[in-house]
Amino acid sequence: MQAVKGAKALWILMVISFVLGALTIAFHPAYRGALTALWSGTPETSPILQSNAEYYPHVAEETLP
Amino acid sequence: MKSSHAVISFCYAFLTGIALMHGLRPEAHWAPVLYLLAVLTGLGAVAAWLYGRRKGHRSTAYTAFLLVVPALALGMARYMASYRQPDRRLLMLTADAVQASEWSALRFDAPTRLKLVVIEPPREPFRLRFVGGLQALAPVTDDAGTPRLSERGQWLMRRVPEQPLKQQSEWTEVSPSMKKGDYFTIKQPFSELTAPVVEGRMSGRYALYRVAPHMANFAAARGRAAPVGVLGRVVRDPKIFDYKTILTVTPHLLQFRTDGAWYPVEGGNISVTLKPDHALYSKLSRTEAYGYDVALHAPLETYRRSSFEGGFDPASFYTKHNIHGSMYLRDFEGDAPSVRVITPDGASEPRKGHAFIEFSLNLRDRMLKVIRETMPYPQSAFLGAVTLGLRYGLRNTRTLGTPTPFGGGVETKDSDDYIFEEFKEAGVNHVLAVSGLHVTIITIMFVGLFTLLRMPARAYAPFLILALVVFAVITGARPSTLRAVIMNSLFVLSMAYLDRGLKSSILLGVPVAAFIILFHNPQMITDPSFTLSFGAILSLALLTGPCYNLLAGLRGDALAVFLVYYGSVTALVVGAWRWMTQPAPLTALILAGVGLLVYFKRYKKRSLLPESFAYRRLPLGLDYLFAAQVAIQIGMMLPLSALYFNRWPIAGAYVNMIAIPLIGIVIQLGMLSSLLGLVPWIGGILALVLGAANWWFASFFVWLAHVAAEAFPYPFVSRPTAFALIVYYAACAVFIGWKPIRQMVMAWPVKYPRYGRTLQWAAAITGSVLLVAAGSTLRPKHVLPEPTEIHILPVGFGSASVVRSPSGKLFLFDGGYVQRERGRINPAERTLLPFLAANRWLSVDAAVLTSFTPERLSGLTTLLAHTRPDAVWMPEPAGHALTLKDYDAFRRELLPRVEQFGASENAWAREVYEYAHGSEDRAVRPLTSFLGPPVGSGDIDGRPLSTGSVVYEEEDASGRWFRIVCVRAMRGRSGSRTGPYAVLAVEYAGTRVLFLGDMQTADMEAFVKTAGADKLRADVLVMPRLEGGDREDNRRHIEAELELSLGPLLKAVKPAYAIFEFGNPRPVVGSTYRSVIQRMDIVSHYLKQRMGNRRVFNTDVDQWIFIGLSTQGARVQSWADRGHNGAGDESADDVERGL
Q1: What are phi and psi of B993, to 5 degrees?
Q2: A13 lies within 8 A of chain B by CB
Q3: Which residues of B211-232 are buried (b: 16+ CB within 10 A; e: fewer)?
């Protein structure tokens, strides 16, 4: 019973988050830029990724093209 | 009794055994005896159990009883074997009992050190020396001199020379005054021994031991360590900060001298630090470095012990984590490279670590990559810390900087706006250390996901447990995470396969998890991450119910009055914390709270407000959440935060009501998005959408901590005594079992008609006496037996002292230097305030700033914020500079001849100005904000220190005077960093301590001539740092200068002791640090030649130095004198000498 309640809460959280996330991408310039970069296949131009340039850069070295 | 109860009894008996040994700390060589006892009693228990079954005794109580003794012995043995690697006894040595055959058997595979322990002291003195041979080990190297690894990862070694060289030890003098247990460590190593050479008549009995080749026996004290070679392997995921990386290395072989012999190492790790300017930084500051075989060459140092009583003890902390030394890697031209990554023969790349751990860490890096692509900085650093345990990446992350309605004016706000610092102040830093909360959130998320996928619990349970284990690995497997993973796994298993509830899982899971963690590492029993984690879960399990029952009775008027009371207390905490800490208001508030509870318990009249206005009806489970918060505050935060950190994060009690549900959302969304991001193409888009939603929640969390850090105080509090803690937890136990205890006590008059009432009174009186006795142990301490105490604290290259008068008045002299660059160090927070809190000295009468140099001034604002003295004394005319807001005018006033100074003087003038008047870059409260008009708007008196000023004086009952006086206010000199400063004297009963402040050699002559003989004489001289500015002088020049300046001063003062306050000068003086150190060495040597080695103290070496003044004169002792000097007698230096 507890598990079912937990699953329901997680479902609601995910639905709300997808709506909220979509709205954020629509109106937040950095997120809009990130989506554009992802869509155009140039993730390195994402403003979000660029803001993280100094944060654990070794991860980027391996994965960025 | 269920069978699980037998398991619980076993685990708790094991814990008791460990706790007993932690208290008693007997010698490690008893461990094998206890292991044997555990095995024998275990076998006995099995036999008794089998016999009992045949006889029909099937009760589990009987089984549990049988298990207690072996579990106790096992716990004791495990603890003893863990805290010191036992040395191996080779033979017993007596005058006639050792045969030549026994000596010939003493051959070792590798160089071995010896220890001779006195079993029975001799009747007359004699001396002996050990003789034998030494054959060393050396690695096989390639053409470039790089050590080689075999294909299977073994270091290739050879013996040099082929035949052992003759070796003999120094003479060991044995005297009849020695006691049983005294021992000698033989400095020279041997690989074979023959009968020793004895001079004199040998008597008594001695045991000869082989010293365990453990890392704890190899590292040298800080500053004494020479570069050593280490061949080892990186055994943990590197800790990557944004300004350094720390590797954990298990050494296999160790070399003390270039081209010298190599020792095999058995047990213990070291930590290895690299900075970004190191050539191999990019290769080693990444997850792939885990598993690398490395050859290291750098000084190997022990961690320092606590530098004062009650201070943080890094050596003890790292020993608990099996780390016994540290290396800092730097490459020097012409020297061997400090680190080489070794590839095994025949392989194309270095070895990797354990496959499962490699898989987990690789998964973490991929998830981190998704976080970097879906969450902007600094929220990404926060999310990486809470979901992946990457809290090191958050260390220097500044907060969002959102303005708050509170504006940073709270009394105890004392740090820059780093997320890490603000989370501590807000009481929510527990979310940054992955713990039970995180594991539970992840468990709930996966259960929800699997349920959404309509998988039965029996099917998903193994996958869920595997996911939790992977999560524990990627987050560093801290004790708190392991505890939660074990408990949650037990819960999932019992839920899926045994159909048991949560409560039974907790009751079983807590002791089982504690057993598993402590069996692996018994030293964890007092580690904060272990005790706080178990404290939290036990508080939740045991105290939430009673707290809830107490609160659940609140309804109608009672709830309204409670809310008003709670709101009033909160307003007082935020608005008038200092007033709240006074005994009278605090007692009144507590009594009012208890009175209200008792009143409403008996309040039977009809409520004016509707009964439906009830605590039980709080929405969204807030009733349970609030009760759980109260339980955690009572059971864990109040007592343990004061014990471990000397501080109370008051904000936590409030903020966690929002922070805990919020972090549940942040972690779940973070985990889901980073897992979704691993799915090619569409996964990236979905992760970005979830990341965008989570950006709101993460930002809100960081902002919430920012607001709370500014709104609530984060005060230092007195550290509780062990007795007070025992009584406190006994009171908690009574609260938990209040109903049955009350019933039992009320039944006494019926059960024992004769003395039942007397028993009740006795119980009540005993309880009250214990509470009062516990409270009385929290009074301020007398640290020294003398009436007047002066404590010179080790704050690096800075000054900070505490003076206590015979009547208990407290005075602070200077506040130390706050290093605000990467790796922020505030000595006021780190040393001074914990020292005051440990001695329960939180109320200070006055602070004295002897000069405006940054190494005296910059920690002062933190001290003022926490201790709130009545007055701050400052040297004139520098005090006047504070009234000047214009920087140039300030500089001219502070440094009258500043135009002649170099760039460093201008830099420190700017720094002093910023501390005095504030700046945006230094987000600390300016000094002027504490001081009352006309300087600022605060409430502390700013008083001028001029020649003859009496800071304080008092007369004791015997007519002896205590005084703090300003002997001389000096203007300062050009050519040095010194502005105006004061020379102070502390006097008691004719004994005198002179603080020379920032006096330079050029001032000494004038000081001696003008001060007068009575003002000069002192028993103890607290020396200035005679740094000499930018000048690079040669030794003879400096000595000649000292002859003309310090020489006459010493003749006039005639001190019995001299004290230096010294440390690493680089953060303060910059590039001239080498000349400052050189000058310090020369001055120190000059004084030691004239006063004797043991008469000259230095905080850098001696740590905390204390001076007791009494009618007998001055007594000076240091923390190092009490045996807290960091390194033991078995250090690398000794071994090097032996070779």
Answers
A1: -120, 130
A2: yes
A3: bbbbbbbbbbbbeebebbbbbb
Instruction: Say which residue, B976 or B850, is predicted with more confidence.
Output: B850
A12 touches chain B (CB under 8 A): no
Distance CA(B849)–CA(B865), nearest Å, equals 15
Using alpha carbons only, what angle is made at residue B12 by residues B9 and B17, rounded to the nearest 5 degrees?
120
| Residue contact A7–B375, C-beta within 8 A | no
* CA dihedral of B721, B725, B731, B737, whole degrees rounded to 10: -170
Structure-block tokens of residue B368 = 């981190």
Of A17, A46, A51, the CB nearest to B693: A17
Asked whether residue A63 carries a pLDDT value surpassing 50, the answer given is no
Other C-beta atoms closer than 10 Å to the C-beta of B172 total 18
For A27, the closest chain B residue by CA position comes to B692
A12-21 core/surface letters (b: 16 or more CB in 10 A; e: else): ebbeebeebb
Rounded Cα gap, residues B858 and B852, in angstroms: 9
In a mutagenesis test of the A interface, which of B373, B388, B494, B495 is the best target, namely the one with the most A β-carbons within 10 Å?
B373
Residues of B in Cβ contact (< 8 Å) with A49: 372-373
The shortest C-alpha distance from A19 to chain B (Å) reads 8
Which pLDDT band holds residue B1131 (cuts at 50, 70, 90)?
very low
Does the structure show a pLDDT above 90 at B510?
A: no
Which positions in chain A touch B285 (Cβ < 8 Å)?
58
User: Shortest CB distance from A34 goes to which of B287, B665, B688?
Assistant: B688
Give yes or no for B362 touching A (CB within 8 A). no
What is the SS3 assignment for B132?
strand
Phi-psi region of B1080 (alpha: psi -120 to 50; beta: other; left: phi over 0): alpha
CA distance A27 to A5: 33
Which amino acid is it at B9? S
* Nearest Cβ partner for B373 among A13, A28, A43: A43
| Contact between chains at B376 and A43 (C-beta distance less than 8 A) | no
Beta bridge partners of A49: none
Tell me what the mean pLDDT of segment B670-691 comes to: 91
Chain A contact set for B444 (CB, 8 A): 6
Which candidate, B434, B400, B438, B404, places its Cα nearest to that of B419? Answer: B400
Q: Which chain B residue has its CA at the smallest distance from A5's CA?
A: B448
User: What is the rounded distance in angstroms from the CA atom of residue B939 to the CA atom of residue B933?
Assistant: 8
B64: pLDDT confidence band, cut at 50, 70 and 90?
low
pLDDT grade for B909, boundaries at 50, 70 and 90: confident
Q: What is the ipTM of this complex?
A: 0.94
The sign of the CA dihedral B180, B182, B186, B190 is positive
pLDDT in tens, B859-868: 888 888 888 8
**Partner A, chain B 260-289, Cβ-Cβ below 8 Å:** 282, 285-287
- Minimum distance, in Å, between the CA of residue A24 and any CA atom of chain B: 6
